Structure formats: C-alpha cells, structure tokens
Amino acid sequence: MKSTKPRTASSLGMFDLFKGLGIATVVFVHTAELYALNTSGGISISTFLIFIYREALMSAFYIASGYGFRKRSIGKCIHQQLKGVLPPYLYAVAATAVIHLAFHYACFGIWENSVAETGKVLGGMLLGLPHTAEYFGITFFSCGPMWYLLAMAVGWIILDILMNTFPERYIPYAVVFTMVLGWATCLVWELPFCLSQGMTVVPYLYIGYLAKKRHWFDQPLSFKFKGLVLLCALLAAGGALATQSTDNMSMGEWTLGPVGILCNGVIGFWAVHWFVGLSRKCEGSLAHTLENVGRRSLQIFCVHTVELTAVPWYLFAAQFAATPLLGLLLHFALRCWLILIVCLFLVNRRRIFRLRPRRSARTAPTATATTTAPFSRYASRHG
Hints:
Protein name: Acyltransferase 3 domain-containing protein
InterPro entries: Acyl_transf_3_dom
Membrane topology: Multi-pass membrane protein
Subcellular location: Cell membrane
Helix content: 55-70%
GO molecular function: O-acetyltransferase activity
C-alpha cells in the first residue's frame, strides 16, 4: 500500500530513509570492528569498503541535522541544545554505568575491579571524552557513540555564535577557520565535552543550512559537482592507502587533515542528496521500514550507545575467532534484536507500567505532550 504522505524537499521527514539506512550502517560498522575479515593479501575488506568512507557518512548525518538549523539568539540556542541533549545523555550515562557494573562483575567476579572499571566509564561519559584519555592522572574511557550527540550540540552553538557575530559574507571564512582550529586542537590536546569535534563539524552543519536556504535538494547536481565528488572519493581512498589508516572523527584523526574534513563533507552532501531523491521514488515495504527506523534514529542511537559501551561484546566475538563471518552475522542480528526490544519497551513503557486509572480525555493529552514534546521536537529537528 502506497503512502499518502507527500515527499517534499521542504520537510525534515525527507531524511528518514537516509537516517534509517545510516543508523543500520553505523550499528553494522561497530559490529564489524570486532571481527577480522581479511583477504589472502592481508587487506581488510571491511576496512576498505566501509571504514574509508565512514566519516563521510557521519558528515552526512550532520548535514541532515544542519538542514534544521536556524539563527536565533545565542542564549536561546544554548538553552535549546542543553534541553534537548542533557536528558537522553544523562539517561544513557546512568544506564551504561549500571549495566556495565553488572556485566563486569558477572563476567569477572571481582567487585573492586568492576567498580574501578565502571568508574572509568562513568568518568569518561561525564567528561564527554570522544576516546580514551588521561585526566588528573587517571585513565578514563570514551563516552562511546555519544560523542556524536555532544559534537552536534557544540557545533550548533558555535554556528549560531558565528551567525550572530559576523556579517553573512564572512560566515564561510569563519566556518573554515573554526574547522581548522578544531583540527589543530586534536593534534595537541584532547578537549573535554567533544569541543574539538564540535568545531570540525561546523562546516557540515553550515552545508545543511545552505542546502535549505538555497534549495539545493530541489536541484539536480551539476556535472562539475559530480566530478568534485569523484575527486574527493579518490583522495579519501588514496589517503587511506598511503597512510595505512582511515579517518576517525572521534579520535580527531584525518589522513588528509583539513582537506580530508572538507572531502568528507562533499561526499556526505552527495549521499544525502542522492537519498533525498531516492526517498521520493521508493514506496516499497522495505523503504517504509527504513523510514520508520529513521524516525526513531536518535532513540536507537542512545540504546546502541548503552549496549555498545556496557556489554562486553569482545567476549562474544572471541568465540568466533575461527569463523569471523558467522560471528559477525550472528552478532549483528543479536544486536539489532536487542535494540528493537529495548526501543519497543521504551515506546510502550507508559502502557506497560500504567498502574493508575486512565486520566480524563481532557487532561491526559496535555500531560503527555508536556513530557514528550521537547525531546520529540529535538529529535525531529536534529535527526
């Protein structure tokens, strides 16, 4: 049955197909990192086919988020980001700490070590560290995929500050300078709360903002731009092969430096543009399933953060050292099933735990809207 909802390039819902497939790809990549799938020549297939362009995928997420950006007062922007980010982030921190402590003690049986390791996880999440780092002489673990959410919030605030500070004609230069500054800080120090990563994603948010302002998603890509996308793709692959490493935004590593950051933005914009066009044509059940996943991408992302950080999946992967492909497929299926169950529970938690009588029809919608509207608006705008 075809959907009656029109697909236009003027609503945030046009990114649902992209976000659905994107979040599934993120979960798959995080699973594939635990398994070595090598050819006889020693080149990792998963690394070459997926990891080289994974940061282009991340840039595409930020571009889609930037589509919902609009200039407002700095104070309002900061308030919006804190109100939207802090609740899901703190919930994820608490859940990760509790589950990590339980799993670590169940697997290793030493209470003191379990508390110490969980303390490192909790400290890293409270500091907003995108990767393992040492602070105050203590090693803290990363906040996991939550670095993406923190970097997005920081990027939105920085872009709003630039919009309120500089005339419009100077904004592109300020954006590029901010990006270079963020890249430079990654070379010398690991800033807390993903401040460096937040500066490097500002160009992606700005691209999304311009795409909406200039209706780029309504227009076909020019031949010159397609050539630029091909050039950027070749540069990214060449940089990875030359350095034997790949870009990693959370680690603050780009094989081509600032040029690599911009190349990822070009490839990411092409990917979003292609998916926007595809979403207007696809009406099958698979497309609608991915769109439904995309509408819940932020919730899925938070659940994925908790299970990725708290559950010792490396113990599961160790059981399939001889058959990594089988382990990868089983692991991915198990992880998707777990995320699905938890998300269904969160969506239906009010029905499950409804112990008191139902409120009157006049008051119940108001209470529900008051509780869920802020997070829903943030999720729909930021994706």
